[in-house]
Amino acid sequence: MKFLFVHQNFPGQFLHIVRHLVRAQQHDIVFLTEPNDNHIAGVRKVPYPKPPLSPPETHIAARELDGALRRADIVTATAGNLKRLGYTPDIIIGHHGWGEMLNLRDVWPDSAMLGYMEFYYRAEGIDVGFDPEFPTPAEDHPRIRAKNAVNHLALQLGGEGQTPTAWQRSTYPEWSLPQINLLWEGVNLDICQPDPKVRRAPFTIGSMTIGPKDKMVTYVSRDLEPYRGFPQIMRTIPHLLRARPDVKIVVVGGDGVSYGAAPPAGGTWREVMMREVGDQIDLNRVVFTGRIPYGTYVTMLQRSDAHVYLTYPFVASWSLREALAVGCAIVGSDTQPVREFITHGENGLLGSFFDPVALAGSVLELLENQPLNRKLRENARRYAEDRLAMADYLAAYDALIERMTGMTLPKPAPEAPRPGKSTRKRQ
Asked: E strands, 150-214, where?
């Protein structure tokens, strides 16, 4: 089968399905993207140039649509070159967020099209207005509503959509839901799995070494910012440090902004929070690592005694899935995206996003109540095996592609089991 993938940052959300298709060794796979250094053997990357910025006079509410249409023009021109070279995909799979797919129907009107539908923006009731500490002025509502322009255009392309969680799907209007498939994303359970050996030796991360008898609390976000509860974890840390002298805390994440806004006065959110609570934080017991290699990150989760995951009502992070698969004892915010993964008292604990004292209490409970800690760890891993298995995700993806194209996909040979690979069957 001929596949055309489209994502401005190759491979984006399509890493696992692309690798799966490559393993079959029977597909022609082309990937349209902005230039980057990533590479997957068996995939032909076709780069397109980065589109120009919108002119400054463009209305602020229209800039995202303007940028999407400029990108769509460039992608369409690149796709036209592919077509003139004789390439016509059986299916086009891409992310609708940046507008890349908006005009591909004009190039290949008969190809099936499956677009990633990540989030439907609302001016109230979801992420916007959730955190009273950072209110959104009413004059910004038009810009937020206009962010859905690409969503609406994408829903008129005659293809279908996919989204990774039921809650993300529920953010879309009722009339659009028949077009949007729930394709529950998986985790590599062979890589993200418990490893008790990690606890038996000192573990060094950044400038900190955690001894076998230390209690290690972890927090992870792509960037340290309010959308992922960074102010809340910073206000929680002093309570943890005062309560237990054996606690060491690892905070992973960059100083950029992935979601929301930068601090109004400039600088980084880490600088803002250090000005607020830095005099209560012992930097001999707290380390800010920045972003870390994936292998180090997995080992950190395996060593963690309590892992904190916080988020606004927004897209759930991959780190939540990975922490469940590793078998972390998780304290999560009681928000809709987290509730889809964690049942309080069964495979994690849930608490108020806005209460650092209660959050600290939940973390301390996990550090002190070993039977509860062990139960949550075992159930987290069991949940991942039941709900997050990569094989199940890829099988569902295959079935959706086959239904949309009317073609049968050859099945790749199963991967040989690796040491430590789970053999638990789904119930």
From this structure: 160-163, 180-182, 203-205, 208-210
Neighbours of 187 (CB within 10 A): 24
Q: How far apart are the first and last CA of the chain?
A: 33
Name beta bridge partners: 254. Answer: 223
Radius of gyration of the chain from its Cα atoms, rounded to whole angstroms: 23
Indicate the DSSP class of residue 158.
S
Is residue 427 situated within a structural domain?
no
* Number of domains the chain is built from: 2
pTM for the model stands at 0.93
How far is it, in rounded angstroms, from Cα 15 to Cα 273? 35
Cα three-residue angle 75-81-86, rounded to 5 degrees: 125
Helix (H) or strand (E) holding 9: none
CATH number at residue 267: 3.40.50.2000
Q: 365-395: per-residue pLDDT in tens?
A: 999 999 999 999 999 999 999 999 999 999 9
Contact 400, 183 (CB under 8 A): yes
User: Alpha helices, DSSP H only, in 25-165?
Assistant: 63-84, 104-107, 141-146, 149-154
